[in-house]
Each structure stands twice: as C-alpha cells, then as structure tokens.
UniProtKB/TrEMBL annotation:
Choline/carnitine acyltransferase domain ranges (all copies): 59-351
GO biological process: carnitine metabolic process, CoA-linked
UniProt keyword Acyltransferase, yes or no: yes
GO cellular component: peroxisome
This protein's record includes keyword Glycosyltransferase: no
A Pfam family matched in the record: Carn_acyltransf
Listed name of the protein: Choline/carnitine acyltransferase domain-containing protein
Domain of life: Eukaryota
Family the UniProt entry places it in: Belongs to the carnitine/choline acetyltransferase family.
Keyword field: Acyltransferase, Transferase
GO molecular function: carnitine O-acetyltransferase activity
Amino acid sequence: MFAKIFEVSAATASKVMAAHMSRNFLLKLPSKVCSTMAPNIINARFSTSPPKASALPRLPVPPLKITLDRYLRSIKPFVNAEELKVTENLAAKFGSAGGVGEKLQKLLDERAKNTENWLADWWLNTAYLEFRAPVVVFSNPGLVFPRKEISSVKEQLSNASQVIAAALDFKVKLDSNEIAQEKMGPHPLDMSQYFKVLGTCRIPAEKRDKLRLPNDKDPAKHIVVVHNNQFFKVNVYGNHGGPISQGQILGQLKDCIHDSQEVAPPVGILTSEHRDNWAKAHKILSQSPQNKAVLDAIETCLFLVCIDGPPSPDERAAPNQFTSAALKMTHGGGSRGNSANRWFDKTIQVRKNQNLKKLQG
C-alpha cells in the first residue's frame, strides 16, 4: 500500500522556503491505495533478551583531579606558556579542598546515583538538539556502500528492494531479540540504541529540537520513498503482520516511480535549513490537520528511501566518483541537485542513484 504525499504548487513551495507561509498552506494526500498481502515468511527464533540499561554498570564519574588534568592537557596545544600557567593556577584553585570543584563533583556523584547515565541527556541536548546550525554537513553523517554496477532504473529499483527487504529482516530480528549481545571484553554493553535506529526522527523546535522515538504500542509498518521530490508512504507489512516479500516491495517501488515522473516543488529541502527557521516552517505546516498527517507519516516511518535521478554532467566528470557519491549522501548536491529529494531529520535515509556505473550510494 502506498499513498502519494507532498504535492504542492511551485508558488506555495517558494513561500515556504522563504519562511513567508500562509496558514492555508496545504500538502495534499491523495487517496490512491494499493493493498498488499504476503504469506507468513517469518520463523523467529527467540533468544535471551539483552540486559536492560538499568541492569548494567553505570557510567562512572571521573575523579575531579583526573578531569582537571585532562582539561589542562587538552588546552596545552592552543595556549602560550603564560596562558597555560594562569589556567593551571585557576584549575588548582577550582580543585582545592572545599572549593567550587569539590562541591560540583559531589553533585555529579549524586546525579550518577540517580540516573542510568549522568552524561547522556546533557550530551544529547548540548551537542546535538540545541545546536542551531543545519544538520546537513554539520551533524549528519553519510557513507557509501561498496562499489556495485547499477546502470539502469530497473537495476536501481531491484537493488533498492533488496536493501529494504534486508532492513526489514533486521527489524524482525531486533523485535525478536535475535541480535547478539555486544560486549567490551566480558562486559555486556547497553544495546538500547538499536531500538532507536528505525522509526526515529528529529523534530525541529526553536532553541532545542526534540526526538520522536518509535511507539512500541503502535509500531510503524511503513517506509517513505522519495523520487523527484515527491514523497510516498509505502506499507511494507502484510495482513499477516510480517514484512512483505522483496518482489512486492519492488512492485511498490515501480508504482512510486511511475506516479512521480514530474519534479515536484522542493519541500524536502526545508529540512536542510537553520534549525530555528525550519522550526517556524514546521510549526506553521503542523497547524493544518492534513499537513500534520503528512508530517506524521514521514516522521514515524521506519526509514526513507531516496531514489535519485541520473547524475549531472559535473558528477559524471568528477575525477573521483566515489567522493562525488559521498557528497550526495551527505548533502544531496544542493538545490540544483537532490537535496530536496531527502528528509534530513530522519535517522536513516537510504539513497539509490542510477546510471552511475560501478558505484552504489
């Protein structure tokens, strides 16, 4: 089952990207639906569940002296001898008995006793969610898979269907606790992040973004496919409750491509904006119930699959096509490239390019 979303006029899209949007901005959600059914192909083998984070040793708070010593070593390459001496004196005063450092250390120790990880929230908020620069380049990583010759749309979609099927197979193993426990030596590691990879989305908000995590009570059963800046909600689970077959996924992808031959206005490029600007646009979009439903479909999907068009002449002429592909994975190539064929707030986006031989993105 798939439904086409984000069909807007060029004039409206221009207003959106200029952050001068009206309250009547509307993203249409056509009612076209294709039902899918598949035989039960899942034979889950249950294993012992990984230990919960609460059962694992907590992140220790380093002793104050070690923290101060590390701080002084870290600044040494960037200051002169006089500045280093001043800083060493300040650090000694800060770490003295009864000083401010000792009092703060006690507060950290107390926090560590009452939280699973005393640093996690501070790190997430300060290093990521409060960072106001665009997530593109500044925050989001990107990688290129091993080389593979993809010379036609048919091969492109077939390969994409394989990747989707493999990701869904991983999801089945994850849900049935079949993923092997990771360890550092004999010590088990916290694996809760595995359950936040699929279905998670960053939501723009002024001053500090939010994270939309998967809903365990109502888990997502769909992905979103993007082609020519047009977004499609694709259901990838059948009536039996398990993932549909690779062949059925391929059929859905073909339908998406068939129904998106024209390039749509670049709504997706909004996700590459400064976070406060994108937050304002997102807030206005969400005021419409229909828009909110569209955003919900994208934000809750398991992951995005970005089907890019043929490479530009500049891409073909690039001296290092592997690097060129990595750039497209990281930022999409800008407004004249495929940056609008993305939703950069999603944790996982899979990009499939076409007609770029011996290279798979």
